[in-house]
Amino acid sequence: KQEVTQIPAALSVPEGENLVLNCSFTDSAIYNLQWFRQDPGKGLTSLLLIQSSQREQTSGRLNASLDKSSGRSTLYIAASQPGDSATYLCAVESGAGSYQLTFGKGTKLSVIP
Amino acid sequence: EAGVAQSPRYKIIEKRQSVAFWCNPISGHATLYWYQQILGQGPKLLIQFQNNGVVDDSQLPKDRFSAERLKGVDSTLKIQPAKLEDSAVYLCASSLEGLAGDDEQYFGPGTRLTVT
After folding, report:
1. Min Cα–Cα distance to chain A from B18, Å
2. Which residues on A lie below 8 Å from B33 (Cβ)?
């Protein structure tokens, strides 16, 4: 059974800092890994999707890496802004037949002005 | 392009009552998912539809939860009777084909259920 762990559970940083969020998964037989953002009372917004054959994806100030063999991914946020404050969720797609997302519990990020 | 729509946004009921949630996926998306997100947890898949057929409902508590997707478009999720532990946000998502590897899921805003 796939399990996804995210550390830290919460993170508070001053504005402008670069930061790294970590995600690990137990079964390396994945199809892809996604990072999502969730604002309070809102649904999930997909930030980056890394296919299993890829090593990283970039979008603006965000960079996500994937090391499938070690079961790890990192989300790097450059020059953090107060608007980046949200919960960041990591999810892996795996399973035979039905392609399911298994989520971590998330990292709650607060960027202090 | 309109996103995934869900209603209601909030619902408060007493235990043992019934409740229903509605989801309208992105137009043309074949696959629809219902997730349950308990406070402080990541979303957990309850059921996955491909068009109007069920692909996976292994984590759906079938003694009290039911879901349908008539005509392969809109979907409803029902809980009857509700328990206190059903308090959660219920998220609906859709994807174009549901194919592994390169098919992104798009999420609705969710319905926050409180059972008292």
Report:
1. 23
2. 101
**What number of other Cβ atoms are within 10 A of residue B38's Cβ?**
13
Find out whether B97 and B31 touch, Cβ atoms under 8 Å.
yes
Place of tokens 């998912």: B33
**For residue B101, is pLDDT > 70?**
no
d(CA A37, CA A40): 10
Determine the distance in angstroms separating the CA of A80 from the nearest CA of chain B, rounded to an integer.
Answer: 23
Here the tokens at position B23 are: 């989801």
Q: Do B42 and A41 touch (CB under 8 A)?
A: no
**What is the chain A residue with the closest CA to B57?**
A98
Please state, in angstroms and rounded to a whole number, the distance separating the CA atoms of residues A102 and A91: 5
Task: For residue B8, give the DSSP letter.
Answer: -
Is residue B106 within 8 angstroms of chain A, CB to CB?
Answer: yes
- The confidence score (pLDDT) of residue B71 equals 85
CB within 8 Å: A4 and B91? no
- Label residue A110 by pLDDT band (50, 70, 90): very high
| Residue A108 neighbours by CB distance under 10 Å | 17
Three-class SS state of B85:
helix
pLDDT value at residue A96: 59
A86 Cβ contact partners less than 8 Å away, ≥ 6 residues apart: A37, A38, A39, A108, A109
